[in-house]
From TrEMBL:
It comes from Flavobacterium suaedae. PROSITE patterns: HTH_HXLR (PS51118). Signal peptide: none annotated. This is HTH hxlR-type domain-containing protein. The keyword Acyltransferase does not apply. The keyword DNA-binding applies.
Amino acid sequence: MRKEQSTNSINEKFLFGVCELNSAVNIISGRWKSQIVYSISEGNNRFNLLKKELPNISDQVLGRQLKELETHGILIRQNIPDTVPAGIMYVLTQKGIDLVPVLKDLCEWGKRYEGKEIKLPESNL
């Protein structure tokens, strides 16, 4: 946990207040979060299904990323009735459902500019 008066905490509060984009990027930042959200949207809604879809993620990291997405209201955990042992599935909230097309657009943007050098217009200075 970060100290309230630390420089990092103060800077984070400032950036989140300046533009909501900073807050949005903070929510989806992390190596696996966007792929987890996309995988759940495609029906991979149980821990083992996500592990199969994302074989390089460790159980600990997957659990932590799922918990963070739940904390931010992107998904919820639901018990699967009549399963022994008790099963859990992950369901996107409306906030998470609304995020999926944004992630797809970012993916397309990334494909378009991946590895390409961006040439800036020449300055008149």
